[in-house]
Structure of Pyruvate dehydrogenase E1 component beta subunit:
Amino acid sequence: MSIVTTSSEANGNVSAATARAAASAAASAPQPVTFAKALNTALRDAMNQDNAVTIFGEDVGVLGGVFRITDGLTAEFGKSRCFDTPLAESGIVGMALGMAMNGMRPVIEMQFDAFAYPAFEQVASHVAKMHNRTKGKLPLPMVIRIPYAGGIGGVEHHCDSSEAYYAHTPGLKVYTPATVTDAYRMLREAIDSPDPVVFLEPKKLYWSKDTVDLEALRLEHENKATPSMEGKAAIARPGTDATLIAYGPSVSTAMAAAEAAAAEGRSLEVIDVRSIVPFDDETICASVRRTGRAVVIAEAQGFASVASEIVARVQERCFHSLAAPVLRVTGFDVPFPAPKLEKYYLPSVDRILDTVDQLQWEENA
């Protein structure tokens, strides 16, 4: 018995096969991923890889966190590995400290930046000093996740930029990612670190998106296929006329300023600090030596800030390459304002461009 296939049937089979292939390709291709999803996936992958990774904090369990960064982890791993705590930040950090001293890898969430202040004594007196106190015999692998900074229309105690407190405390590493890819990679590295890491997550970036292959990032990390990001800044945008140095929530603002400057014929390089402690002097100073001018951008108040430290380090190391003093665009030295005033407080494209204009261009024409 012969089977005859008509041309229309053949075309239909080809079309169906093409559609299946296209669907398969679309499913395997990198997809738009939010900053929050990258962090959630990093936590999930770390928990899958290492049973010692345990997550806890206020509302991180069933609710999945205020910003849903821990969404689904309690359901997947159980209440013994992702659980809620009382509203007692000092107790949360103290418990994590004890767990890390005994072989666990706790990842705790402070919920909001200023909510961490009641725990600061534990952080400064014990978490940061335990390795030194034991003459290096006792590592302390723990991560303190802190959603921080403004840009969400919040109020004080919900929008602080508290990085200077932690950066000033010897014994802590301080990371703050600014891209979806870095959110995943840096959180995985923080969890793997034998030292305590304060992991600052810019709240306004939680809903930002980028096309990222999270599975590829997982394989790269677990196979150690990429260099460590610890103490490594990144050139987010090449340029020749001046260097904009930013970190965390200010990187996107710096990038927008560089784009606006390009339309006016000025080429600005953007450096994403990424790792505040340890700090990458080499990458940042190499950029400033090339361009001869620099502006440091940060949301935190300018006085006695991380921005102040960056300015000092650049001035000391690049003095003979500078065509103008290093300037800053920061938050003002006042408590974080009410939501309607937030736009006046935070660094903006206009403030950055106005500051770039002050870099003594006429004297060096």
Remarks:
- The first strand starts at residue 31 and ends at 34.
- The chain has two domains: 31-222, 234-364.
- The chain has a mean pLDDT of 93.
